[in-house]
Amino acid sequence: MIELKVGVVGNDNAPWTYIKQRLAKEDIQITLVEFADFFSPNKALNEGKIDLNAFQHVAFLNQDIKDHGYAISPICYTYLDPIGMYSKKIRTLAELKEGDTIVIPSDPSNGGRARLVLEAEGILKIGLAKGTVPPLEDLKENRLNLKFKKVKPAETVNTLDEVTAAFVNGNYAFDHGFIADKDAVCREKLSADDLSTPFVKVLVARTCDKDKEVFKQVIAAYHSKEAADELKQSEGGALIPAFNY
Question: Is the pLDDT of residue 20 over 90?
Answer without folding.
Answer: yes
